[in-house]
Every structure is written in C-alpha cells, then in structure tokens.
Amino acid sequence: MAKNIQAIRGMNDILPADTPRWQALEGVIRRLVASYGYSEIRMPIVEQTELFKRSIGEVTDIVEKEMYTFDDRNGDSLTLRPEGTASCVRAGNEHGLLYNQQQRLWYMGPMFRHERPQKGRYRQFHQVGVEAFGLAGPDIDAELIIMTARLWRDLGIAEHLRLELNSLASNEARAAYRSALTDYLQAHHEQLDEDSVRRLATNPLRVLDSKNPAMAEMLAGAPKLSEYWDAESREHFAQLCERLTAAGIEFVHNERLVRGLDYYNRTVFEWVTESLGAQGTVCAGGRYDGLVAQLGGKATPAVGFAMGLERLALMLEQAQTLPVRAEVDVYLAAMGDGAELPALRVAEKLRDTLPGLRVLQHCGGGNFGKQLKRADKSGAHVALILGESEIENDQFTVKYLREEKEQETVNWSELVERLKFLALG
Fold first, then answer.
1. What's the CA angle centered on 86, arms 85 and 89, to 5 degrees?
2. In the beta sheet, which residues pair with residue 302?
3. Could you tell me which residues come within 8 angstroms of residue 409 by beta carbon, excluding any fewer than 6 positions away?
4. Is 281 buried (19+), middle (13-18) or exposed (0-12) by CB count in 10 A?
5. Element (H, E) at 113
6. CA 91/CA 95 separation, integer angstroms
7. Pairing, β 124-133 against β 302-308
8. Percent of the chain with pLDDT over 90
9. Which residues are CB-contacts of 74 (< 8 A; sequence separation ≥ 6)?
10. CB distance 219 to 210 below 8 Å
C-alpha cells in the first residue's frame, strides 16, 4: 500500500466543519470594509524577492530566516509573499494608482513564513490587510483604528482585546533615539540574550520587543522614544489620541511598541489579547510614509493594518459569539423510485424560487428511514418529503428537524412561505 501523503507542517487544511465559521468571519469583514468605502485589490502570492528585501528590511527576522524563497527556471529569485503591504504598494506603483491620489484599498489571502508552527502561528496563514494612500493626517490613522474597533464589536469579541498605541516619530527623531538606545543597551550588554545581541547590531529598536522576563527590568530603564519625538510627530500623536478618545476607543500608550518591519514611521498600533497564549497580537499596523518612494514610486503618505484570520477564528471558536449558518437548509427525501425525477424538478424549482435557499437532495438510494437519518445528520432545518401520495395530490410534507413543531403537508405556495425565512439566512 502506498504511503499517505500529508500536508506540509504548518500548512493546514480548513475542513468542512470549520469553513462556515471562516465564511461568516470573512462576510463580516467584507461588509465592514465596504461600509467605510474601501475597494478590494487582489495581488499574486509570488513576488520578486527584492520587493520584500527592499521594503521589510534585509536584517529583519522575516527576510533573514522566514521567507520561502526559490529560483525559478529563468534563474529569477522569487518569494511567496510573507505579508501584503509591500505587494499592495508594488501593485499601486505599477498601475499608477498612488501618485497624487487618495486610495482606500483592502485585500484578503494567504501569506507564508517559515516559522516554528504553534497555536495561532502557521507557515501558511491568512490575513486581511487594509491600506490607505495619499492621506497624511491623524484622521485616517484614527479611521483605521476605529474600523477595527467596530469589527471587534460586530464579532462580539471587543471585551477580549486591548489597543496598544505608540509613535515612531520621524526618521530623524528615530535615528537620534536609536543612538541613545544603542548606547544604553551596550552599557548593559551582559544582560542581553543571544537574540538581542544580534538585534543590537542590526536593529536595536527590535530589542524592545523582547519577551525575555530576565531582561524586563533592564528594558524598563531604557530611554523612552517619546523623549525624542519631533514637534510634528508629537502633535500628530496627540491629535490621533484626541480622535480615538472622542470615538470612545480606549487605548494604552506602550512606549516599547515598535513593530517588526523597517518601513513604519509615526503611528504604530496593535490589538492584543490574553486568550490565545503566546500569540497575542490579533491585528497590527501603522503609518509607512516612506515605503511608496522606497519601492520606486513618488513620495506618498500611507497607513494600514493587517489582521490574522486564524487567530480571529480561534477567538470566535472560544467565544462562540458569531452565529454560523447551517450548511443545509432543506434536505429533500424521495420515497420510492417514482419520486426521484419529480424530486429533482422540485429541488431545482425551489432554487429558482428562493435563490438563497440551500437544498440538499438525497442521492444514493436507501430506504426512507435511512434518508431521514441523513437529513438529521446534514444539519438541515427541515426535511422535505416527496412520495407517491404527495406527487398525486401536488403536495409536500415538511418535517421540522430543529423545532418542536408537528409535521405538516402543504401545497406549493404554502411551502414557499414556510421556507422563505430560511432563504434569507
């Protein structure tokens, strides 16, 4: 017997029992971004490797250790996208969408990073990204954060999430801070773990991301980035906080929040939770005003965020807050060989009359008892029974599978009336 081929570690199947929750989640997100006037863009999952080296930064963990990179048959270096912002900017530059324009865009799809798989962290994972271009003020930063807060309310998980906010200020202010932070960390070199020593030489701000409890006290005494903010960045952050407060959005100013990608400036934020263990960041983003020019376009202000769908799906599974519609509304059972063709026509007529109705027609034969067992197992709300008597009298028997209601026999117009509410979802 041939050996079974299994999925690649960290690249998971989403099975039929789980897809209804995913579909419901995706549906809520699609309605949300549409309500704010954002347009969908779809990018390829494979890009030139240089795109991510130039945008994310060659000394980041993603580029150094996590990207799926390969040479194609022409010898070109290609990479499965590890994140969506760089691809979105590349597409915007390539198709002339960004310069001297305002664009509000969003996308959804798989991303790829070669990490150690664990709960909430996978090698193929799915993200929703939302990006706004051509707007420099704190008002658009606030809009994006307020949009995410609305999503948590729509999903019923707002109480499980906390907003952390910071500003990375201007490049000049950050350079001055980086110098002061480097001096401080070098003075405490003996307390740094191996990962932090490596980051000290490449991107010292990332040392602030360390979760090592042995370094917590030392890092608490490090210089604060806010002490180096320029006046414009300070005012931008103050106005953002003012808008969030006016919208009733609670937040924590986390001085150590720096984000892991090199392209951020000014606003950075994360929505974090305690309910997923170590993988507590559910949504993160910020402003990246220099990236469009960095990737070959004209200087364009930009801000955005990304959220992980796997982590949201896990939270929804725990909270049980998002109603998930059954896969089947009506199970159509035919009694006797003479009922099979009429049942086929009835199923199609129902789909024509009630387009939202999900009708599962019994196939594969079997006695009536077996059909009813399958009807119940399908999760259908009702079983629609069609036998010789029903055909002869142009009627239909409705058996309610999820309600304490008596079975009834009805005509076509009554049947449509009974099933209309199911078609509406």
1. 85
2. 133
3. 390, 395, 396, 397, 398
4. middle
5. none
6. 6
7. antiparallel
8. 53
9. none
10. yes
Distance CA 382, CA 359 (A): 10
Task: Please report which confidence band the pLDDT of residue 205 belongs to, taking 50, 70 and 90 as the band edges.
Answer: confident
Q: What is the pLDDT of residues 366-422, one digit of tens each?
A: 788 888 899 988 889 999 999 888 888 889 999 999 888 889 999 999 999 988 877
pLDDT digits (tens, 9 = 90+) for 259-272: 666 678 899 999 99
Contact status, residue 70 vs residue 39, Cβ threshold 8 Å: no
Q: Scanning the structure block, which residue is given the tokens 């570690």?
A: 9
pLDDT confidence bin for 196, thresholds 50/70/90 = confident
Could you tell me how far CA 173 lies from the centroid of its own chain? 32
User: What are the b/e assignments for 102-116, b being 16+ CB within 10 Å?
Assistant: ebbbbbbbebbbebe
Residue 97: C-alpha distances to residues 77, 137, 293, 295, 333 (Å): 26, 20, 13, 14, 54
More confident residue, 218 or 209: 218
Nearest Cα to Cα of residue 324 among 336, 316, 312, 314: 316
Can you give the pTM of this predicted structure?
Answer: 0.87
CB-CB contact of 160 with 319 (8 Å): yes
Q: Enter the tokens of residue 243.
A: 């808008």
With a cut of 90, say whether residue 190 has pLDDT above it: no
Give the count of beta carbons closer than 10 Å to the beta carbon of residue 166. Answer: 25
The residue among 32, 237, 257 whose CA lies nearest residue 149 is 32
